[in-house]
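User: Can you help me understand a structure? I only have the sequence.
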Amino acid sequence: MPFLLYLLALAVFAQATSEFMLSGLTPEIATDLAVSIPAAGWLTSAFALGMVVGAPAIAVLGRRWPRRTTLLSTLTVFLLAHVVGALSDDFTVLLITRLLAALSNAGFLAVALATATTLVSADAKGRATAVLLAGTTLACIAGVPAGAWLGQHFGWRSAFWAVALICLPALLAILRSLPRAGTSQPPLTRLRPTRRLVVLLLLGALVNGATFCTFTYLAPILTGVTGLDRSWIPALLALFGLGSFAGVTLAGRYADRRAHGVLVAAGCALLLGWCVFAATAQVIGFAIGLVFLQGLLSFAVGSALISLALYAAAESPVLAGGLATAALNVGAVVGPVAGGFGIEVAGDRAPLWCSAVLVAAALAVAGVARALARSRRVEPVVR
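Assistant: Let's start by predicting it. Here is the structure, written out as tokens:
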């Protein structure tokens, strides 16, 4: 894999760290800026909204720009948003910087996914996607705990400065290594998502919704249902991150040759895992093992779906990357909402069952789509 690809993954690591680290910094931000905890939570909502809107918007609006220009501009805006946020004493300004950071993050990821596929051979898109998305999983393992540690010892602003500094090597690498020439895109009227691409995006939203439905509420599940002390939570969040890294790595190894086999096997195992986790969450051994396993399966399936989406829209990889990024973030918004509603209705174990329902829905959609595709192929010629 080209070294530039790993530096792009470093930028994705910084961006994913920024997206997730507020879960550990919200109390400090609320105290420092004299706002309530729920108000500070708007920072997370603003980021999620920016991610959903930003990916397809920048993919379409920036389609006439060279990819180098888009990557440089979005990463620069992301970096500057963190600098301004770290210097600000006004909550409204910080809220605006989070929205701008998310918009630029989404645009960067959409174009980076397309760029990654051009840095490798035509049959290695899955591996390139896995390397790029490894930045997200490593953020769960190292970036988020490090951000929380910085916030506790040096204030929440230090975590923002750290994210900005991590972006610099990738920014320099893009400036020096990517060619200035642009990549031609088809006319906008031809950028019509195929039925296959739409199904893949829907599956990505459902699977990612299931992932974040439980991941968002993993702490209350492990303390309220499993009975673990809160001191276990950072280690188990890191364990989930290790599983997700392993899943992305495995998907990258097989997605280019056996993507459908990976999806069927891992998807069924993912549904079974959520059901077993929901039924045995009170057993410490099962809970700890399933934290790792479900992280592995969730990100293996998600990574394989993104790879297939890029293959399905090879004529417009930037738009495909934008739509994939938006779909995943729709899941990241809907999943926690479903899990939170489940907790209010049925208690702390409910997000696990909600995750199982979302994966079951994904498998049902995939089954119906496959059956329809087969029926069209075998439709008799004589009417």
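Now, to help you interpret it: The mean pLDDT is 82. The longest helix spans residues 233-280. Let me know which part you'd like to focus on.
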